[in-house]
Amino acid sequence: MSVESKTNAQVMTRVTVIGAVVDGLLGLLKIGVGFVSQSHALVADGVHSLSDLGTDVLVILAAKWSNEEPDANHPYGHDRIETLATLILGSVLLAVAGGIFYDSLQRFFDPSVAIELGIAAFAITVASIVSKEAIYRYTRHYAQLLNSKLLMANAWHSRTDALSSIAVLVGLIGVSFDLIWLDALAALIVAVFIAKIALTLLWDAMQELIDTALPEDQVTAIRAVALDVPGLRDVHHIRTRTMAGKTLMDLHLQVDPRVSVSEGHEIGCWVAASIRAQFQEITDITFHIDPEDDAEMDQEGPTSLRPLRREVLECLRADWGPLVDDAQIRLHYLRGAVDVEVVTSQPVTADVLKSKSRAVWLGRVTVLHPTVGDN
Ligand SMILES: [Zn+2]
Ligand SMILES: [Zn+2]
Which domain holds residue 175? Predict the structure, then answer.
């Protein structure tokens, strides 16, 4: 577990550092060439590339922190840090879309701010498109491999940079053909596209932060896998939520009410193991063993608590005398009552015992006689 988390953080960091190096080089190149060729647009684009370093740093920090092992303060782990970073990254992308949109509107109404022409600007813009698209594909590959929304968000960030460079390229071509409006139109389309990606990222991250369950068909599939385990009678209250590509779940397992605590627990362990084997993204399973179907009662909690063993035995002792201490007494808390199993070699019958007791909580009384030689 810890080895795997470490490699996740390392892979995310390596992928992002490579993207950051490209951002840094592109930024410096654009600013340099922009200054030499007196291109205001290219300098602005270069500043944008350098600002991308900021989100790269965010991703690297989030990768490091979110993959830390659970500690006393964060017993569920730190994965939601990744969700939070995705939320920030989505907001940045939305702001980028807003900026491009505003720019393109300005150019529509005031064509004099259109971008300047130049062979260097062409070359740099093409280099920017190719390298950012390559970084997008590279980052997306690892995002899918690690099932990381944050890395996917950063991948999309790279692609939006490639797209805005395409808008710049279209603008440059437009300028050379005297079609000034072409640039503004391209930028407008790119802005809408980036906004859509940003909103999708924000929506997904917010769904995760408000503990949205897995889709219903997945929950149904999990239920089916659980019910395949022998000894399990039913499942209720399957609750799922996600954390940065991992799923946490808790569920109630109904077993035969007469099995021992350890047998019920073992059935639960088998259910958890088979769910984990089928659904690798489910990393945390908490199960609750139920002796009967209490799906309705679970909502409000038990209406009244029944007495525990000491109190039960005190009552029974008053009715049944020393038999209580000589026999082995098994208690079953079912249907709101306490069923009593009396295991004794003495010649008593359930009828005799039942007629004596007046306790309201007392359910069925059963007498079991061990055969000779039984232990
Ligand atoms: Zn346990
Ligand atoms: Zn239950």
Answer: 2-209
